Structure formats: structure tokens, C-alpha cells
Amino acid sequence: MCYRPTLLVSVLFRRSKSLALPEVIEGCRREKPAAQKQLFEAYYSFGVNICLRYADSREEAEEMFDDGFLRVLNKISYYDPEQPFEAWFRTVMVRSAIDHYRRHKSPLTYVDMDEAYDIGEPDNLLERLAADEILAVVQQLPPAYRTVFSLHVVDGYSHPEIAQMLGIYEGTSRSNLAKARQKLQELLIEWTSTSSVNRRNYV
């Protein structure tokens, strides 16, 4: 998969550039505990925030992150230094989160529709929210909608890729994305309206 940055990624994740990443990665390749600890601490919040989009709770997201970080350490020798590390890390973490969900949950219920409809992107509403608010709203989506929405809109996977990852038809992925966007717009309108009322009451 070729990583494609999205608007939501730039909104959700802003990271420090102070980490001496090449040295830390090399230390992890040599299985140095100090380097592994540095990588864990530097990417903990980043990784947990990725997993939160696929989990039902923060506790489950932390379990997903633990699984994903072990996979990162096991696969770090395959990382190509010519490619952005965060993109590679995100790919490993997303796939680990999906694997965790499929192992521990009942099969997701996906809705097939004859035609997927497009109601437009909710990005204009998302831009008004802080990162924690975006995550809170996305987590309110039904699991099947949330999974497809996160994979496509946030993490940049195509519908054929999503279909392969989840074991569903490509049309089913498109249909659930359309339903997710519809539901998300409803949630965002409700969220922003409630926030406005709360701010007025506070003042």
C-alpha cells in the first residue's frame, strides 16, 4: 500500500521532531532495551490515538497498541529508511488493530446497499473540533461504519484494500462509508450544537 496523507491525519496528529529517530531505529534493530523504551515513549500517544478509532474503549485501544508495538519491534528490520517512519508505523499499527478486533470481537455486521450514495465530506465540521473531540465523535459510530470510515478517510486505504483486509465486498465498503458519513454528519451537527449551547451557558 502507498500511504496517502489525509486531512484528518494532519488534524489528529502533530508530533515533536526532537527525537533522534535514525539512532533509535538502529538501536531497536539491535534489540537494545533503551532504544525500544525511547520508541515506545515517543510513539505511545500517536499509536494509541490510531487504535482508538478501531476500539470501543481506551483500555482496548491500549491493548491494541501493545500488540501493535510488539509487531513494530518484530518487523522493524524490514523498515525502509528511505520511507517516512510514521507512515510505516501507522500501517503496522492499523493492521494490528484490525487483527486484534477480528480476534476478539464477533464478526462485524456490514450493510449492503444496491447503490452507495455520497453526501459529501464532513471535513468542514471536523475542522472546528479539537483532536480529542474528533476521536470522541468517531467512536460513536457503529463499529462497522467506524472501521470503514477510519480505514478510508483517516488512514487512506482504498476500497479494494479495505475489502481485502476485512473480508467484504468492495461495494459493501463503499456502502458502509456512505452510511458512516451520513451518521457522522448527524453526530457532528449535534456535537457542535451542544458545544455552542454549553459555551453560551458558561459565559
TrEMBL record:
Write out the GO biological process terms: DNA-templated transcription initiation
Asked whether the UniProt record includes Metal-binding among its keywords, one would answer: no
Residue ranges annotated for the RNA polymerase sigma factor 70 region 4 type domain, each copy included: 132-184
| CDD domains (UniProt xref) | Sigma70_r4 (cd06171)
Q: Where is the RNA polymerase sigma-70 region domain?
A: 39-105
Sorted keywords for this record are:
Sigma factor, Transcription, Transcription regulation
Q: Where does the source fall among the domains of life?
A: Bacteria
Is Ion transport one of the keywords? no
Q: Which InterPro entries match?
A: RNA_pol_sigma-70-like, RNA_pol_sigma-70_dom, RNA_pol_sigma70_r2, RNA_pol_sigma70_r4_t2, RNA_pol_sigma_r2, RNA_pol_sigma_r3/r4-like, WH-like_DNA-bd_sf
Q: Per UniProt, what is one GO molecular function of this protein?
A: DNA binding
Similarity-based family:
Belongs to the sigma-70 factor family. ECF subfamily.
**What name has this protein been given in UniProt?**
Sigma-70 family RNA polymerase sigma factor
User: Organism source for this protein?
Assistant: Spirosoma telluris
